[in-house]
Design a protein that fits this description.
The protein is α+β, with helices and mostly antiparallel strands. It folds into 3 domains: 132 residues, Rossmann fold (3-Layer(aba) Sandwich), CATH 3.40.50.140; 79 residues, no CATH class; 87 residues, Orthogonal Bundle (Topoisomerase I, domain 4), CATH 1.10.290.10. The chain is built from 10 helices and 16 strands. The chain has a 4-stranded parallel beta sheet with strand order 2-1-7-8, with helices on both faces. The chain is flat, with a radius of gyration of 31 Å. The N and C termini lie far apart (93 Å).
């Protein structure tokens, strides 16, 4: 008889976890949800408090039969799906469909797939959180109601094959409203004035230093007049000040910030980002990616501290506290902590320079000589 059966929702996750557990544990995957609302039927009894009617899809029947057989042979079944509402619902459906006994069933959760995290979760099992299960069922039922009720309206009023959804229909409305605002916007022309100062560095080589006029100029005539006044203007440096430059890293990624950065820097869609993040999580490379928390695990914090201290020294390590609006289930707000690198100071000095004013198709350049140790002062009309 198999002593322990661990069930997760992903086969890749199962392979990774199996490496950390001994021979007394067998790890299998449910391949996601094992049952859902019937595809071609409404499957919700509204008169009976929105009671859902579930079925096991044809492609999951073989998986369910295998899990049932293994569960009967195991002394303890560990339900190790994700801790979010979808994962909790998967655990609940497994418990119901496999007809597991409460005294032989344990629910475990972890935020990262590492050996220490898995073993710690096994030491502290819990019961299935029925509130999270109900949240998932409510979400699924609302999806079905909105889709079944509104999609036929779109087919009649717009065109066939369109679909309505609890989230997508609202998102489309927001996009349409924003696009109408864009189309109705009346733009106003203005001129921006930028100066490019050529400043000698310590080797005497000229390097560019840019400065921008603090205000915008409304008309071309005003801009022309301003540039004319610059022909006889003298720019001097009145003062030089040096101060430490501190660069702090951003907070650890949440789901939304991860998606934003992946789109901005890599051009990834949300689907691409989450697919890659899921694979990284399942292989134990990152912590759980569907989260609004910037809290790092104790293992990650301590490991980072050791590495930074070894590579750069203790003075480059200190805890950084994030004041978040993340709430626990009891409603309390907590602060998050991580570690950051304290980067060295950076000092910038300016000496002699050349200036070139430009805006749109108007450019003017002239050399100016200034004393070292003075700040830029712009002569106006």
């Amino acid at each position: 008889m198999q002593k322990n059966l661990v069930i997760v929702e992903s086969p890749a996750k199962a392979k990774t976890i199996e490496k950390f557990l001994g021979k007394d544990y067998k790890v299998l995957s449910s391949y996601g949800h094992i049952r859902d609302l019937k595809k071609k039927e409404f499957s919700i009894d509204i008169d009976k408090n929105f009671k859902p009617h579930y079925e096991i899809p044809g492609d999951k029947k073989k998986v369910v039969e295998e899990l049932k057989a293994e569960a009967k042979e195991a002394e303890t079944v560990w339900l190790a799906s994700d801790e979010d509402r979808e994962g909790e619902a998967i655990a609940w459906h497994l418990y119901e469909v496999l007809k597991l006994k409460p005294e032989h069933t344990k629910r475990i959760v972890f935020h990262e797939i590492t050996k220490s995290a898995i073993l710690k979760a096994i030491e502290k099992p819990r019961n299935i959180d029925i509130n999270l299960v109900d949240a998932q069922q409510a979400r699924r039922i609302l999806d079905r109601i909105v889709g079944f009720e509104l999609s036929p309206v779109l087919w009649r009023k717009v065109k066939p094959a369109l679909s309505a959804g609890r989230v997508q229909s609202v998102a489309v409305r927001l996009i349409v409203e924003r696009e109408r605002e864009v189309q109705a916007f009346q733009s106003e022309a203005s001129y921006r004035v930028t100066a490019v100062f050529l400043v000698p560095d310590t080797d005497g080589k000229l390097v560019e230093m840019k400065a921008e006029l603090a205000r915008r100029i409304k008309t071309k005539a005003e801009a022309q007049k301003f540039l004319e006044s610059c022909k006889s203007a003298t720019f001097t440096i009145n003062d030089i000040s040096t101060r430490p430059l501190k660069k702090s890293p951003s907070a650890p990624f949440t789901t939304s910030t991860l998606q934003q950065e992946a789109a901005r820097k890599l051009g990834f869609t949300v689907a691409q980002t989450m697919m890659i993040a899921q694979r990284l999580y399942e292989s134990g490379k990152i912590t759980y990616m569907r989260t609004d928390s910037v809290n790092l695990s104790e293992l990650a914090v301590n490991s980072s501290k050791v590495v930074i201290a070894d590579l750069m020294g203790e003075r480059y390590v200190y805890p950084r506290h994030f004041a978040t609006q993340t709430k626990t289930r009891d409603g309390s707000v907590y602060a998050e902590t991580t570690y950051q690198i304290n980067w060295p100071e950076a000092v910038v000095t300016y000496q002699q320079f050349d200036v070139r004013w430009s805006f749109k198709d108007i450019q003017y350049s002239k050399d100016f000589l200034a004393e070292k140790g003075k700040a830029v002062e712009q002569a106006t009309e």
